[in-house]
């Protein structure tokens, strides 16, 4: 059993994506993963990115304001 350092505050990875240039043709998304370690944050980020790529990116593009 390994001990965590007392000053470990965790880790966070964030990516902000913007697609399009015009007001009516612009999508913005922020994907953030966090966890007690950098490895945990990376794993969560990868899961969320994959979920966005597979499902949400197309659904968001199809929405017409």
Descriptive overview:
This is DUF7389 domain-containing protein. Residues 7-65 form the DUF7389 domain. Residues 9-30 have a biased composition (Basic and acidic residues). This protein is 38% helix and 28% strand. By secondary structure, the protein is of the alpha+beta class. It has one domain (11-62). It has a two-stranded antiparallel sheet with strand order 1-2. Strand 1 and strand 2 (27-35) form a beta hairpin. The protein is elongated and about 40 Å long. The model has no long low-confidence stretch (mean pLDDT 81).
Q: Which residues sit in consecutive blocks of at least 5 with pLDDT less than 50? A: none
**Terminal CA distance:** 54 Å
Order of helices and strands: EEH
The structure class reads alpha+beta
**Strand arrangement, largest sheet?**
1-2
**How many H/I helical runs?**
1
Number of domains: 1
Largest sheet features? 2 strands, antiparallel
Shape: elongated
Mean pLDDT, all residues: 81
Cα radius of gyration in angstroms: 16 Å
Oligomer: single chain
Helical percentage = 25-40%
Strand content: 25-35%
Total strands: 2
Domain DUF7389: 7-65
Protein name: DUF7389 domain-containing protein
Organism: Halorientalis persicus
Biased composition (Basic and acidic residues): 9-30
Please describe the structure with a list of short key phrases separated by commas or semicolons.
65 residues, alpha+beta, 1 helix, 38% helix, elongated
